[in-house]
Amino acid sequence: MLQLASVLHSRGFSITIIHTHFNSPAKSKHPHFTFLPISHGLSPTGPSRKDVISFLTLLNSDCVAPFRDCLAGLLEDGPIACLITDAVWHFSQSVADGVGIPRIVLRTSSVSFFLVYAALPMLREKGYLPKQGHINPMLQLANILHSRGFSITIIHAHFNSPAKSKHPHFTFLPISDGLSPTEAPMGNIISFLTGLNSNCVAPFRDCLTGLLADGPIACLITDAIWHFSQSVADGFGIPRIVLRTSSVSSFLVYAAFPTLQEMGYLPKQSVGLLSSLSFFICLSGF
Description:
Blueprint: H1 2-10, E1 14-20, E2 34-38, H2 52-62, H3 64-76, E3 82-86, H4 91-99, E4 103-106, H5 111-125, H6 135-147, E5 153-157, E6 171-175, H7 189-199, H8 201-213, E7 220-223, H9 228-236, E8 240-243, H10 248-262, E9 279-284
Parallel strand pairs: 1-2, 3-4, 5-6, 7-8
Antiparallel strand pairs: 1-9, 3-9
C-alpha cells in the first residue's frame, strides 16, 4: 500500500494516510505523506490478534464513525480524488458512497489466492462447491465400508457431533473434548484444534481400550487434523488410515507450491497477516 502511495505521489498526487493506532505505519520513513490516526475502539481485553476473523470484524465495526469523521474533516479543505483501501476494510465502501468519493480496492493477497479464485467457477460447475466439510466425507466412506461387511463404530467429540439418527447401522461413542462453553466457538481455528488434539488423547485411548475388550479392531480411520490419534493407535498396534477431506481447490494450491517457490513468490514476503491492513490512502488532485 505504501509502495503504491509512493508511486502516486511521484505522479503529483497529494497523499493522506488514514490509519488506526494498531499497527500504524512508520511516519518518519514517509515525510512526504500526511498521516491521520483514527480510533479503532479496541481494548486490551478485546479479541486476540491471533483470532483474525473476530479481530477484523470488530475493526470493521468500530472504525466506521471515526473514519467518516476523518473524511468529513478532509473534505472541508477540498475535494478528495479517490480513496484506496485494502480489501478487508469493506466498511469503507458505504462510507465512501455516503460522501460521494470513488473507492479503489488494493488486493494484496498472494498469487496462490488468485489461482484458487480463478478456479472457483469451474469447481462450482463440477459440484465440488459449496465445500463438503470433514464429517460428510467420513460418513460416506463409512457407508461404503459398511456395505462391504465391516462393522462401523464412530468415535466423536461432543462438539459438532454427527447426526446419529441418520445412521442407525453405526455405533456412536462420544468422548469428552474438554471444552467449556466459552471455548467451543471456532474463531481461532488453530488454537481450537490444538486444544482438541490435546484434550482428546486420554478419552480416545480409554474408548479404544473398551472396544478392544470386545474384540480386535481391524483399522482406525481418522481425519488428517486429528494427529494425536497416530500415537494412540501405535500404542495399541492398530493400523491407522488418514482420510484427507480437503477440497480440490486446496490441492490446486498445494500443486502450485513448487512453481511458486521456483518463481520466488514463496515464502511470502509479508511479515504478518495484518502487516498492511490498518490504513487507507486518500488522494487529492494535482
